[in-house]
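Note to self: keep these together.
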Amino acid sequence: MQGATAPWPMRRDVAAISLAAPVVVTADESSEDAAADLLARIAPAKPGLVLIFASDGKHLLPLSRRLQPELPDGCQIVGCSSAGEIGPGGYCAGTVTAIAFPAQSFRAAVCVLPEQEHIPVSRWMSQLRQFRTGFAHDPRRAAFGILLADGSAGHEDVLVATLDATIPGVPVVGGSSADGLRFGRTCQIVNGEDRAGAAIFILVETDFAVSEITFAHFSATADRAVVTAADPQNRTILELNAEPAAVEYARLARLAPDNLTPTDFARHPLILRVGRRNHVRAIRGVTPDGGLELMSAIEAGTILRLGRVEGLTQGFADAVDRLPRPPVMVLGFDCVLRRLALERAGLRDEMSGIFRRYRVAGFNTYGEQHSGMHVNQTFVGMAIVPPTPT
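Structure:
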């Protein structure tokens, strides 16, 4: 990639009401000119918040430190490593994607929740209550939250439930930081500081309207399995139907048990039904002793169904078209297993085209958060929509 990918053109209806829409740019993450390329596009927006996502987390800290002095005082620069990015051209990889939220129309504050791995819930709740009180939200403006969890620390289920209980009434979407398909150490940064091991919560207030969007491409089959042994601390199924977990999963999915791949997991998810909704319990990998390591919480006694992939792209446009007005941007968090399934089906370019049409920007995750739930193999997003005309 040469230089930066240009952002979308300004929509006429937004220009007419003098609102400043987010600006999205991608640049080659290994380029010596990456910071300059990004600044040329985002600095004129005078942002109050900049999100940066990169496939290789080692680029984020030095990049954020180069951006900070060139941006307005008080601008929050927050980012994390990814398993791929979504920029103005759709899916991309090996890039830095920057999303600048102009201070003219957005105000943001950041709360760092430490030690995600140790889940200090009482401390998080106290910290979040103080943070919420100090934000002084203007009720005439919309508010939403962004959660960037540490995908290598786990425990997103408890983290999201804690947020939902402590800051009710504020829609929150987010994604778990990633490390490609290596599943190693991930990276989180806040204002030029390495905050590995922490979860980052951003509270945003805006003159735009906002609306949450979710999209999943699976359904449950009749094939059921009971988790007969599990290691909840490590999110691992040890046995399904009293058989070694990987062997029984392969039997149900009609796969070879000795060669299970991330693409197989993407095409044949495990599904937990809660109420009337299906939630994927995505498989991260096979342990040396034949267990299935998941990306979400699991306990013995849980009943799971084998999932079936349906239309990987069908329905996404319908979800966005149900919004009252076309979005100026959709901040998106898309599971890496969805991206793998699209690539396997030869539909990556088609999905990228849809993302371009609806101005989606964000990154590929190890898990997604919305509506107080941690989910997998799902697209979740926050649509930034022009307000109702007065």
